[in-house]
Amino acid sequence: MGWASQLFGTPIRVSGAASLETERFVNAPGGAIDYIRTSARAQYINPENDQDYSPFLSYVPRLDFDPTFANNFATRQDLNLGIDKVFNFDGDFNRVPFSGSSSAATVWSLGFAAGVQRRFRSPAPQSYALYGAPSASYVISEQWNASVSMPITGR
Questions:
Q1: Which residues of 63-102 are buried (b: 16+ CB within 10 A; e: fewer)?
Q2: How far apart are the C-alpha atoms of 51 and 25, rounded to whole Å?
Q3: Which of these, 45, 22, 127, lies nearest to 80 by C-alpha position?
Q4: Phi-psi region for residue 105, left (φ > 0), alpha (ψ -120 to 50) or beta?
Q5: pLDDT tens digits along 39-59
Q6: Quick one: pLDDT at residue 81?
Q7: Cα(69)–Cα(119) distance, integer angstroms
Q8: Which of 9, 53, 138, 148 is the most buried (most CB within 10 A)?
Q9: Cα separation of 62 and 78, whole Å?
Q10: Distance separating alpha carbons of residues 54 and 61, to the nearest angstrom
Q11: Distance from C-alpha of 60 to C-alpha of 40, rounded to nearest angstrom
Q12: How many angstroms separate the first and last alpha carbons of the chain?
């Protein structure tokens, strides 16, 4: 579940999300885990150039539970500072001009996100991380698109 909106007509976009997640392993049932994860993010969006660098600050807390959310055994809180950048191209792979919204002409979109993270964790250890995530999107039709990304983290 998520939500996003411009902050009172400013170029700051705020967003939030919440999710319940579960992991089950056939060959390692003792490794099963459930999560409750929320997030809050503030990001500068250039209203004149949708392909500009877009810095952000986010806060992502997560509660880890034994299966069926029985016992909360760990908590982590991630504070992230980073930047997003996207390059939009038309169907012939020509660069789409910068604008407030070049999405109508965009068929291919290549991007990356990069940042630093401070993780506060209970029980310890706490940590720092550098991360990056190159991505690519292809607009198949008005109703369909395909995307791929590859998050890379060094902790």
A1: ebbeeeeeeeeeebebebebebebebbeeeeeebeeeeeb
A2: 40
A3: 127
A4: alpha
A5: 999 999 998 898 999 999 999
A6: 98
A7: 22
A8: 138
A9: 8
A10: 22
A11: 7
A12: 28
**Which residue in this structure is represented by tokens 């993780």?**
119
pTM beyond 0.90: the answer is: no
For the range 28-33, what are the long-range contacts, defined as Cβ-Cβ under 8 Å and sequence gap of 24 or more?
32/66, 32/67, 33/64, 33/65, 33/66, 33/67
Instruction: Give the separation between CA 148 and CA 127, rounded to whole angstroms.
Output: 28
Structure tokens at 122: 């209970």
Residues 6 or more apart from 78 whose CB is under 8 A from it?
58, 59, 60, 61, 62, 117, 118, 119, 120
Cα-Cα-Cα-Cα dihedral sign, residues 36, 14, 85, 147: positive
Instruction: Give the Cα separation of 98 and 46 in Å (integer).
Output: 10
Among all chains, which residue has been given the structure tokens 């401070």?
Answer: 118
Residue-wise pLDDT tens digits, 124-139: 999 999 999 999 999 9
